Amino acid sequence: MQMEKNFDASAAEARISALWQKQKIGAAGANAKAGAEAFSIMIPPPNVTGSLHMGHAFNNTLQDILIRWHRMQGHDTLWQVGTDHAGIATQMVVERELAKSGAPSRRDMRREAFLAKVWEWKDQSGGTIINQLKRLGASCDWDREAFTMSGNFPDAVTKVFVDLYNKGLIYRGKRLVNWDPHFETAISDLEVENIEVAGHMWHFKYLLADGETYEYVDRDTDGAVILRERRDYISIATTRPETMLGDGAVAVHPSDARYAAIVGKMVHLPLCDRLIPIIRDEYPDPTFGSGAVKITGAHDFNDYQVAKRAGLPLYRLMDTRGHMRSDGAPYDVAVARAREIAGGAHASEAEIDALNLVPDRFRGLDRFEARDAVVAEINKLGLCVPVKVITIDPETNSEDWRNEPYVEAKKIMQPVGDRSKVVIEPMLTDQWFVDTAKIVGPALDAVRSGATKIMPESGEKTYFHWLENIEPWCISRQLWWGHQIPVWYGPTSYNLAGKEFCGATEQDVAAEAKTYYGNILGTEIKVEFPNEAFFAAIAIGDEGRDAAAAISVNGDGSHTIRLHRDPDVLDTWFSSGLWPIGTLGWPDQTPELAKYFPTSTLITGADIIFFWVARMMMMQLAVVDQVPFKTVYLHGLVRDAKGKKMSKSLGNVIDPLEIIDEFGADALRFANAAMASLGGTLKLDTARIAGYRNFGTKLWNACRFAEMNGVWEGHVTQETAPNAAATANKWIIGETAKTLAEVNAALEGYRFDQAADALYKFVWGKVCDWYVEFAKPLLDGEYANETRATMAFVLDRSMILLHPIMPFITEDLWGQTGQRAKLLVHTDWPNLPLTLVDTAADAEMAWVTGLIEEIRSARTQMHVPVGLKLDIVATEMDNAAKAAFARNEALIKRLARIETLTHGAAPKGSISLAVDGASFALPLDGVIDVAEEKARLSKAMDKLAKEIGGLAGRLKNPAFVASAPEDVVEEVRANLALREEEQAKLAAALHRLSSMG
RNA sequence: GGGCGGUUAGCUCAGCGGUAGAGCACUACGUUGACAUCGUAGUGGCCACUGGUUCGAUCCCAGUACCGCCCA
Fold first, then answer.
1. Looking at domain A194-412, what is its CATH homologous superfamily?
2. H/E element, A205
3. What pLDDT shows up at residue A544?
4. Does domain A692-841 have CATH number 1.10.730.10?
5. How far is the CA of A452 from the CAs of A60, A64, A455, A680, A752, in angstroms?
6. A958 CB below 7 A from strand B atoms
7. What does the pLDDT look like over A344-402, one tens digit per residue?
8. Gap from A898 CA to B39 C1', in Å?
9. In this predicted model, what pLDDT tens digit does every residue of A417-461 receive, in sequence order?
């Protein structure tokens, strides 16, 4: 069967992919030699809602290269695949589908029914990205596909939560978090995008209490007074006027002389019947705006810190949807209580949170409507800082001065939910936290000690920087899709303090509750776990729930306690933080856990080093006291050819599946490998991918050439190199060994780009450009058999070495070119000693290729027609040159298009060539243009002179000879001698030419 | 504002103490026994700038300018 002219990527990929899957070539331990060391990689679990983008394609190509490389070496490999449940994203997708189909909303159908819908969706559509990975050629263990909500994973997550809770490493508290008013949940920093938008800065006057005034003095940078006036107000600036309703203070910098006199005094909060103090804090920037900052502790992260430092009450203004609150007591009641608290009355955190200080007329407004309303009212009250505006009447030329409210147009950074696209509201809510400060130590030590190595090194800096300044980790989400927090709350009535119980199962919790309440109440305790609907149906609010439902006395005097489970679920990152052990079966001590953990290498984007890598480190160390991986390879974002981030709005997204359709998966993979320099930028250009598709074609055609020349006839894979006599064969065998060494070294150092580069240069630059051409004459001569054997050996090695990067085309070729014991994917990685490199053969081939290039170059420059065969005259030749020429005569003649070689003086009208140990003349009588040949020689001389100048200059410098290493000096000397020899030859040729006229 | 990184051929990137490299693009020629998804020969670089260390700096150090990214 004759080979096709080109590799048919789409047909071959489908066929080979199916074959691999059928034979389970990626199964854990497949192709492992007895007693082999383990090599394991955890896939960074893609989002179950996701589809393959360039980042995945890049990332998974690198993982696959490593896995295939190790598997071919006979190591016991596992590439663990799976997806994470992506709480917010999945919930969003399913809610959207429900809305589209006109089904009841999530809230209407309630939790259990909604979750059933999510599972339904997952079973139907959750496998998209996994199938796309197969198209890329990923050789994962597909049978082990994991999911953070399936199998042992939920149990593992619960167990870890309970363990950390019992160790006091998890706690619940009221904190300011990023709140998404659309999804009505806390979200992580990662899910917040900060986008610069056109905003405004309003300037308001907060009047001093009791009509007090002070002298306001403004100075320039030299200290000269530029403004001095009496003021009865302090000027504050804000981009979010609606939050002023919750202000707890005005803060100024301690060094700010302008306000020193009024620090500690009270100001009237506009629109509110409250007084708030002027306080000192380091936070305000005296050079920015007025230097005075309003402090709204419950709605701004910076203000929150100030409020905490100053002990200010944190008044929450909005509900979960970002509307101004309409719950609680009427405003006059609330504000009266607020005044008492300001006056020093004790109030619990819960009471302060329950206090609604939104004036009645603003209640229920959306926060942006409230903003307009607040600004309008302040303007009406004349409490905006005015600015003088001048208008000139064009007819009368009279000037009209007016005061207008001072509103600056200003670019502001606005936090936006990456999925909801709504403005994120810092919100004071009850959340669960991991006390990361207590578990961060081992994670830091592991990297410091080198137990885990992060590449590139800059990643370690980022890692340290973040971990050394770690914040508590908010792990609760107000979602339904996820791992529900295993905490139940007991009743608060009957003077019970409202105990919480944390346990892995309801049985555990019931036992604990029985003991607890039995001790307090002195009766028999029955524990029940009604569902949420039960509580929701009875009443809203803890007290109502309690009185009616959470505890009751039975006829026999016993009590029934009904525990209410925390409705929140855990952050998806909490479960993906357990990915390494969770996918291996933990908490069961499975054989896989023993064998493949800690894992060998993690390959992931540098953008999630905080959110995922660091957390996996902390969690694995906290739970099983081992690092999750030995090496972490971090890479950047894949960008477009111009370096722009790919985004739908820019329309520059490159779909890897389209690329695979057009160029084949191998081309995309090779491009990915070639881009992967350590810390390098990842700009993906389709022109480059096309180039690597061409590279595949090149290899294909070399194999096709071999086939046409009988190389594959009866071919069986040979592990050892043939014993070659012809120089070209010896040489290419040595080049193969060198390339293997380069590829091994490159992959050991995670230099995928260098591996790709070495293979590209070898296959195209050595095998195709030279060796196949050398083989043509050799296949007609006495070395035909050894040349066939050599070519088979070299092309086999090319397929093997390229296989981790280009698995499809190489597997296809492998199957077409010989008797194969195994699929290529399980073929042994070569072991070729560098003793195969024959330095004499290398030198000889360098001489031959040098001569051929000289002749070709001279021919082209002299406009000799390509088809014309020339005679060549050796004007001088040392013995080495003679021998080299003799041994490779057929090659030289064919590739340089030489008819005959004679020895003697340069004939009239010839051009001259100088190579190491020999000079040649190409007789071109009648063809030669003397002026052009002179120019050619002069140009070559100029170049030589420049080089000689540099080399000689260095040798003339005594300091160089004295200080530089011996071998460097020797090299320069040898180089100089070589150039001078060549220079002499060219000079002689030029002289002859001149004397000719 | 803090941190990290970058600046090398027209473009995209390697190199990182010892005479500047690749791919793509470009120019000329070319269907020579695999390959036009190709071949042959070429063109093209004050390696951002300024100092310093060194016998020697694109490479190391300091500073400057510009450009990214992350975190505020």
1. Valyl/Leucyl/Isoleucyl-tRNA synthetase, editing domain (3.90.740.10)
2. strand A192-207
3. 45
4. yes
5. 21, 21, 10, 21, 20
6. no
7. 888 887 788 888 888 888 888 888 888 888 888 888 888 787 777 777 777 887 777 77
8. 18
9. 887 888 888 888 888 999 988 888 899 889 888 888 888 877 888
Computed from CA positions of residues A724, A730, A733, A737, in that sequence, does the dihedral angle turn out positive or negative?
positive
Query: How many whole angstroms separate alpha carbon A674 and alpha carbon A782?
Result: 40
Query: How far does Cα A332 stand from its chain's mean position?
Result: 53
Q: Which nucleotide is nearest to A776 (CA to C1')?
A: B33
Q: From CA A333, how far away is CA A331, in angstroms rounded?
A: 5
Is the Cα dihedral A894, A900, A904, A907 positive or negative?
negative
In the DSSP assignment, the letter for residue A655 is P
Residue A708 CB lies within 7 Å of the nucleic strand B: yes
Q: Which residues in window 143-182 of A are less than 7 A from strand B by Cβ? A: none
What does the H/E/C string look like for A695-757?
Answer: HHHHHHHHHHHHHHCCCCCCCECCCCCCCCCCHHHHHHHHHHHHHHHHHHHHHHCCCHHHHHH
A 595-654: CB within 7 Å of strand B: 607, 639, 641-643, 645
How many whole angstroms from its chain centre is CA A401? 57
How much is the ipTM here?
Answer: 0.94
* Res. A641 pLDDT band, cuts 50 70 90: low
Q: DSSP states of A893-911 as a string? A: HHHHTEEEEEESSPPTTEE
For the segment(s) A869-996, the CATH number from 3.40.50.300, 1.10.3210.10, 1.10.287.380, 3.30.420.40 is 1.10.287.380
